[in-house]
Amino acid sequence: MAVKREVCKKTKKFMDDQNFKNHKAPSGTTTNWQGRIYVVDPDKSDIAQIMGLEEKGEYAIKVR
After folding, report:
1. Which of 3.40.50.9100, 2.30.110.10, 2.20.28.90, 2.60.40.1940 is the CATH number of 7-63?
2. Per the confidence metrics, is the pTM higher than 0.85?
């Protein structure tokens, strides 16, 4: 059985992503998420700008 990865509820960052190893989840974490996106260059990515993402890394699209 696959283990669900933990995601920060507020920022949608995956807690095991190496880009966010120092990130502290201000509102807790959850394993209830859907979809994911990996942002390589947030300045050139239209999706990253729409979602308000400012850092390179892996994010969940929908977090409950």
Report:
1. 2.20.28.90
2. no
